[in-house]
Amino acid sequence: MSEPSPWATVREALERRSPPSEPSDEAALAARARRLARPLRAPGAVHGELLRTHLGGAIVLFPTEAVLRVARGARPVPLPGTPRQLRGLLRLRGVPTAVFDVGPLITGRPTAEGDAGWVVTLAGRGDRPDLTVRARDVLETLPHRTEGWAAPPEDAPPFVRALGAEGELLVDPRTLLADPRLVVDHSDEQ
Fold this sequence. Notes:
Mean pLDDT: 80
Oligomer: single chain
Radius of gyration: 27 Å
Low-confidence stretches: 38-46
Shape: elongated
Structural class: alpha+beta
Number of helices: 4
Number of strands: 10
């Protein structure tokens, strides 16, 4: 017969000297997770943050996870012969950027010129480019609570996901980004 491995002998000696075993790290973490776990969308729970803006004569809320950039004092240069929702071009971080007024699409009214003017850039998804929209004011960020929202009216545009207690409009950026009126077509450029 072969002699026992020196490692087996060392392992046995260590096991005899070890204090009583405590739960493994994985078991301890799993127990802690169960203690702290709660439903993702519990009533009154916070589900991210919302950027509160003033555009189209209304308070419009965008989920902050969809917001890439907010800039103040941005005045786009108007382009003749473009659709009315395209306010013009603006250079953001050295890149010419189309700026849209989504007020008429969301509320039926254009966004009034504020003292300084703001632009909010929403992150594009997949093959959709980023969307930069004009806002009269950017007011604040606030917690996105899961309760206290009403369904939008039947005649509301598809971008409006819900209405807040004070008449705020919660906008779905993915639906807004999918609107073909908010795309600059470069297909005829050489």
